[in-house]
Amino acid sequence: MDILDAKKIWAEVKTELRTVLPDHAYYPWVSEMDVSGCEEDKFNLITVHAMAPQIIRQNYYQKIVEVFKQVTGRDCDFSIMYDDDFAKKYEKAKRKESAKPKTLLSPEEEKENIIMENLAQMQSFANLNLKYKFENFVVGENSEFTFALAQNVAHNPAKKYNPLFIYGAPGLGKTHLMQAIGHYIIFNKPKLRVKYIKTEEYVNELIKSIQRGSDCNRKMESFRQKYRNVDVLLIDDIQFIESKKRTMDEIFHTFDYLLNKNKQIVITSDRLPSEIPTLPARLQSRFEMGIMTEITPPDFETRVAILQSLADQEGLSTDFKVYEYIANNFVNNVRELEGAYNKVSAYAAFSKSALTLELVRKVLKCDEKKHEISFDTVAQKVAEYYGVTVEDFKSSSRNQKVSNARHVAVYLSREITDKSFEIIAKYFNKRHPTMLYSYDKIKEEIKNNKELERAVNELKRSIKG
Q1: Is the pLDDT of residue 121 over 60?
Q2: Strand runs (DSSP E) across 168-274, as ranges?
């Protein structure tokens, strides 16, 4: 097809998309795309935004294909890629445009400028991932109440549920919902400043700020203002503040400051505040003063719905038995479920094969894994290594030697079998939070303890044979 004809068709497609897509979808993703050619009804689109190919494919691919068919009267496809030269020309044009008096900007230009400012905030200050939205969160019985609370906070920040404390095992969607709150607020309440931070990153920033130097006080003041000069603060994985007294002090004062200013706070954790060791009572009371809500592992129907949603986003369809097989074998959390699906869909794409049950069985090898390493094997090997017994692990003994060995056994049980902490807790006759504590403790210690790292690696090799 001639390039002029391709550009004419794309112009018509863009005009139609402007009417069927919401503003935050059209600007800037579609509005700043152009066509560079067309071969056999496949249009080659280029964009000035590096993230656009991923965003378009994940969220708007099907709608664009439908509009192409509506305009051309036939089935069409398209590819999209970032073009550096096109981006440079765009930036040059934007700089010229920014010099125009505001009174000369059209309503469409004003609207685009606002959305671009919102996008800039998401990418820089807010630190949010664009893929985490309410629209692509699959709600089940395990998350229905938490989802409703998150939406309420997004629509009415700092009005009722403040702070919102979301807890549950890793990989269940806590981060997704937390960032969805920020995503919604930025695009619907653009005057509010949103900030997302992982607790581990917060700790690292604090450490850098308190390092000795002539400008230490200035650094600390800048650090504090960064997290206090916001309207919505989102703190992920708060359990990592355990035993970090200076961090707990800073967070306490920041929380007090924001709450007194009627600013919204959202927190996620893998456990309740009362189950975080060494957490001061004053900070625990702050965490609990709003509302606490738990996300639990999804049931079978929800797991299948999640898999179908992932397939829909890619425009794929397959036999229900494929979803059933994956859902029955990956039950602990959403993260591992998505990982399994991504693995088989990628294999199918690279091998140009259909996504069949036979292919899924071959790639995931779940039937073989069911007969693999057990908790008994892990516990026995660790017990022998440290000179204790498996019965010691399951007892209430607080002996230092037994406790240290038990921590390692729990860590390896999680790493090698990938079973949930709930299942591991049942085997060791302990509570779920205790298993989380053991795992996190070893995970952190092996970063700096070479002897422990060597022992853990040696045990892994021994257990796996």
Answers
A1: no
A2: 194-198, 232-236, 264-269
Which residues on neighbouring strands pair with residue 86, listed in sequence order? none
Return the structure tokens found at 391: 């019965």
CATH code, domain with 325: 1.10.8.60
Instruction: Indicate whether 208 belongs to any domain.
Output: yes
pLDDT 10s digits, 257-303: 999 999 999 999 988 998 888 899 999 999 999 999 999 888 889 99
Q: Are strands 264-269 and 33-39 parallel, antiparallel or unpaired?
A: unpaired
Buried b or exposed e, range 163-179, using 16+ CB within 10 angstroms: bbbbbbbbbbbbbbbbb
The torsion angle over the Cα atoms of residues 383, 388, 394 and 400, rounded to 10 degrees, is -110
pLDDT one-digit tens code per residue, 140-192: 988 999 999 999 999 999 998 999 999 988 888 999 999 999 988 887 887 88
Q: Are residues 237 and 289 in the same domain?
A: yes
Among 110, 93, 92, CA closest to 101: 110
Residue 193 maps to a domain: yes
Could you tell me the residue range of the domain that residue 147 belongs to? Answer: 134-294
